[in-house]
Amino acid sequence: MNTKYIHIGKSTILWEKTSFSRAFKFLKNNSLSRAELSDDNGNVKNIHYGDILIKFSECLYADERNNIPYIINDNIAYKLLKLSPLINGDIVFADAAEDNTVGKCTEIITHNDTDLVAGLHTIPCRPTIKFAEGYLGYYLNSTAFHNQLLQYIQGTKISSISKKSICQTIIRDIQ
Fold first, then answer.
1. 87 near 117, Cβ under 8 Å?
2. Disulfide engineering: 44 pairs with which of 77, 109, 124, 152, CB 3.0-4.6 Å?
3. DSSP conformational letter for 69
């Protein structure tokens, strides 16, 4: 971890930098298609990469009615939930897109133990160090962070980003 003091007016702020690989651990995702999801019926919600790119903002309030699709098959849903549930503070990246929006992410904010998993073309991860609620959702979607990803985006028609590439980035946090 690298620290730096920044003087703003009469205030001094501690600014810390750490590698992504030190600040996060990766979780498992699933490969369920849209055909295996429902907008109306189910018990376990599934974060799909297309929804990250189009519908969801920087912070996804999973407790609210916000059109997170459900997994239709409850047997599959509960197996996936047992394997890798998403909890408050987790981050889910979209690892594929038709343009440079690849790498867009959403921070999961839930306070009622919503049953939630990460789906197709996502990279879910959990912070290993404490961040203020909502900070990562905004920071990881900022130009400052996304510019770090640009050099690692691959593909011509479909752009993608890998876990290995995300690990090459630096996280900045004001303490």
1. no
2. 77
3. P
